[in-house]
From TrEMBL:
This is Activating signal cointegrator 1 complex subunit 1 isoform X2. One of its GO terms (cellular component) is nucleus. It comes from the Eukaryota. It comes from Carex littledalei. PANTHER family: ACTIVATING SIGNAL COINTEGRATOR 1 COMPLEX SUBUNIT 1 (PTHR13360:SF1). GO terms for biological process: DNA alkylation repair; regulation of DNA-templated transcription.
Amino acid sequence: MCQINSSPEFNYTEKLEVDDSVCLQSSSSTESTKEELVTEANVKDGKCSITMEVDTPLVRFVKGKGGSVQKQIEEELQVKLIFPSSKEETSLVIEGNKVENLTKASERIKQVLEEAVQSRMLDYSHFISLPLAVHSDLVQKLVKFQSTILGEIAEGDSGETDDSGDELESQSISVQLEVEEKKDQVRVEIAERVVGSGSKSRILSDLGIDKSIFIKPKTFHLTVLMLKLWNKDRVATASDILQRISSKVMDALENRPISIKLKGLTCMKGSPAKARVLYAPVFEVGEEGRLVRACQVIRDAFVESGLVVDKDAQQTLKLHATLMNVRHRKSDEFWSERKRWNDSFDARRIFDEYGSEEWGEYPISEIHLSQRFKFDESGYYHCCSSITLPATMPTI
């Protein structure tokens, strides 16, 4: 059996089998590998196969929509792709009669995966975070922020008043039901809040606001860097990098505690009338630039490791505390009315009330390698690795 060296980016290996016999170890060069395999195949003149270890999150890209990519590779190169039978297995087998075609198929698959990783098709799985949800008073402020918007905005915009100008919220409705034969009358009291609940929902829907676009208070954080870590090896590498640079991070912080201040609101994309992301700007207490330097140490280390996709590596660090994001929307009804790429919400009333909000000052106590879509008992993202930052001034 002959091992073909492959790109470490995707953490897969290739093995060529010819009539169940064993080949000599190939060199690291792709061209020399190809020559050695062809020579061995010609000697055996039998059916060949290559086994590629492709991680489960990447398999769908090799298949393509409706099997289009798989079909194209199989038809053009006269090979057969055999995918793992379960999510626990990662062996993708390529079968064919010509070693040259097997090698071309494996190279085509590598190209497909490289393009997928660099695109939005493969979502981020992890990120480097600065947890803010550890501060219970801040969490309570966020809970109130959400409840106020979901409640008071709808009520304030309802425009429904009686003759005295009072809102119908404080009134009740009397309904008389007449029975035809006995002429009995039944008086029914219906609370307006029940009748009005539908109109409030419609008002929020018209504004593009629903609960799903709010950041969950128990996950509140600052994001330093987004990562695509689709297998355990990449997660382990990222964890190792974070631990390895801890001393450099401490140096950037000058081994002193660091705190941030959150104030006001800003739109990352769009305008208050058509907002996509709403966040609270972050200011370092003392304005010494230590936090930015520490975050840059982290970014540089991960970019150098090759774990950061190209477009993210070129972006400038901008710390922000996201409060609302349309990417998190879960309402199916909303999608039937608006296309995702045009999704937005009207935040003008929110800016009127919270545009100058003093959210408070909070110390940054830890740096996490956080896993998306998985949560610890506290409600915060699952922590794969962390660095504890100075909590008190060092003694001299």
